[in-house]
Specification:
Helices cover 77% and strands 0% of the residues. It is mostly helical. It has one domain. The model has no long low-confidence stretch (mean pLDDT 90).
Length: 276
């Protein structure tokens, strides 16, 4: 019994670790996975689990970028420390839209849009957009190829795109990366800034869910949550490294096609399931 639940947590951690960073919608995958792998836990715990498991994923970003994002490192010069703080200032500016609107409308959006129809449509729509934007940008030289060139206004506008990810199936990384590319950043800067934006967003979302759920875990619930987070952390490290290596020589169109196919599969599966 316990072993089976822990194996489920391992699988869910793998799915979270991969889909959180690739622009393919972790929510869309989790909805599908939930159809086949049901945790033997309360609805309240499962709702909390699928958000707080992201803490494991976000710690991968903290680990991989600890030096780059640490403004207090003694190995950095005064100028490098200032540049690091400027990255954080831009992250804060970029987080503001999602933080404000997320607190106001998160529950309402989940109540009205957390369904397979919305997820499938968003998967397909953003898949098509990735293909269109990449085709449009073919041969263009991005005007923002470093964080020094990333203005505060651009950071804020990228944050506005992140608001779109409040709708399930959009993908937080997908929305921010797509928005950043539209605004003229390189794919590499778009991906890294998306990672950095996720730190306060995911810590905040996880903290809010923990407070709502409370900290009165059973031993099994604690084991499931810890297992999922650890696995999500390990897989996230690999997924982030893969994405950064992939986009050095490739665009995002493959992810666009993947989203379209997954969206069609979601519609097909749930249509057949509802009819049966």
């Amino acid at each position: 019994m316990i072993l089976i639940e822990l194996l489920k947590a391992v699988f869910l951690g793998i799915v979270e670790g991969i889909t959180e960073w690739l622009p393919i919608s972790s929510t869309g995958h989790m909805i599908l996975v939930e159809e086949f792998i049901q945790l033997n836990a309360s609805a309240a715990f499962k709702e909390m689990f699928f958000v707080v498991i992201q803490l494991g994923a976000i710690m991968a970003v903290v680990l991989l970028y600890f030096y780059k994002l640490n403004p207090f490192s003694p190995r950095k010069s005064r100028l490098e420390k200032i540049e690091t703080m400027q990255i954080w200032y831009k992250v804060i500016v970029g987080v503001i839209p999602a933080a404000v609107l997320g607190l106001l409308f998160d529950d309402w959006l989940n109540e009205h849009f957390y369904n397979y129809q919305t997820v499938a449509v968003m998967l397909i729509v953003y898949g098509i957009l990735f293909i269109i934007i990449e085709n449009r940008n073919k041969g263009r030289i991005p005007r923002v190829q470093s964080f020094e060139q990333l203005t505060y206004m651009t950071a804020f506008l990228i944050g506005m795109f992140q608001v779109l990810s409040l709708i399930p199936g959009t993908s937080r990384s997908g929305a921010t990366i797509l928005g950043a590319i539209i605004l003229g950043t390189s794919r590499y800067i778009a991906a890294e800034f998306s990672f950095f934006l996720s730190i306060p967003v995911m810590f905040g979302a996880s903290g809010l869910k923990l407070v709502k759920f409370g900290f009165d875990f059973t031993g099994l619930e604690m084991a499931i949550l810890a297992t999922g987070m650890v696995v999500a952390f390990i897989v996230s490290v690999l997924a982030i490294r893969f994405l950064l290596g992939y986009i050095k020589t490739n665009d995002f169109k493959a992810f666009g096609w993947y989203r379209i196919v997954l969206g069609i599969l979601v519609i097909g599966y749930f249509t057949l399931f509802d009819l049966s």
